[in-house]
Design goal:
Layout: E1 9-11, E2 19-22, H1 29-40, E3 46-49, H2 80-91, E4 96-98, H3 102-105, H4 120-125, H5 130-142, E5 146-149, E6 154-156, H6 168-172, H7 182-193, H8 201-209, E7 213-216, E8 225-229, E9 232-235, E10 247-251, E11 268-270
Parallel strand pairs: 1-5, 2-3, 3-4, 6-7, 7-9
Antiparallel strand pairs: 2-10, 5-6, 8-9, 10-11
Length: about 270
């Protein structure tokens, strides 16, 4: 069944409170609860996520991956069903916005992901009642591919998209369920699955869509964050970061931000720091 899709570029003017930006949780309910508590501590906060809320580690594999100093990175239960239920309730309040990651896209026409199961979308949907599966598909299809925050100077993406576009109209032509022409297909795939920017593509993307800085996830960073280009920040809020380094972005109102302005402990904060 095909469902209607939402706009692919969403512009949000938010001037009366902080903006929280987080990245891939992959079914980690404890980290979701921690982020929710931080969000709820500021009544006028806007929370923007890059997606990949779902598809966590399988029991038999989750302890196999460790940091350089031996700390387990994926030692948690996959609680994607509970996370989605609580997330959707929270999003109905209007101050939580998410992009789809490639793991959400797998439920609505994208390539099936195989990080911990042969077909992670099928595995998750087998754990949900039919009505819940229908709801998640409708919601994922309504989520934008890019979020633009003009007051903060920030463009939020899931991965590191190529800049083969002339402007916002090219973004709006993308269809999650297809069909897409070759150019739209490349934009969609790169926005969801690219791990790094090609030379100057971060600047080119900002020139076409606006902003001073890109914030994205999709990749892992044990230290929680790192520059991924001259004007782009890779943020790792949960999946792939050491517990003490799980990072989120906290931008106070009143100014636009560039990558060089961000300070560890001020704008770049830690869930358990």
């Amino acid at each position: 069944m095909r469902y209607p899709e939402g706009r692919k570029l969403r512009t949000i003017e938010h001037r009366d409170g902080p903006v929280l930006v987080s990245t891939d949780l992959h079914g980690n309910l404890d980290d979701f609860h921690r982020l929710r508590a931080i969000f709820e501590s500021a009544p006028r906060c806007l929370w923007v996520s890059v997606g990949d809320w779902v598809h966590g580690p399988a029991d038999e594999e989750r302890r196999d991956v460790a940091s350089d100093d031996g700390e387990p990175l994926y030692d948690y239960d996959d609680r994607s069903p509970e996370l989605l239920e609580e997330l959707f309730d929270l999003m109905d309040g209007g101050r939580v916005v998410s992009l789809p990651g490639n793991h959400e896209h797998a439920h609505v026409g994208g390539k099936r992901t195989r990080k911990f199961h042969d077909d992670e979308a099928a595995f998750l949907e087998s754990r949900l009642p039919a009505a819940r599966v229908e709801e998640l598909r409708k919601r994922f299809l309504s989520w934008p591919l890019f979020v633009r925050l003009p007051s903060q100077g920030v463009l939020v993406t899931h991965g590191a998209p190529m800049a083969e576009l002339d402007g916002p109209d090219d973004v709006e032509r993308v269809r999650y369920q297809g069909p897409n022409d070759a150019r739209s297909a490349r934009l969609l795939e790169s926005a969801l699955t690219n791990y790094g920017f090609l030379r100057d593509h971060d600047r080119m993307l900002l020139q076409k869509l606006g902003g001073e800085m890109i914030v994205h996830g999709h990749d892992r960073s044990e230290q929680g964050f790192e520059p991924s280009a001259e004007a782009a920040l890779l943020l790792c809020s949960s999946f792939g970061a050491k517990k003490s380094r799980k990072a989120f972005l906290w931008l106070e109102p009143g100014r636009t931000w560039r990558l060089g302005d961000l300070r560890e402990g001020r704008e770049i904060r830690f869930l358990y720091g």
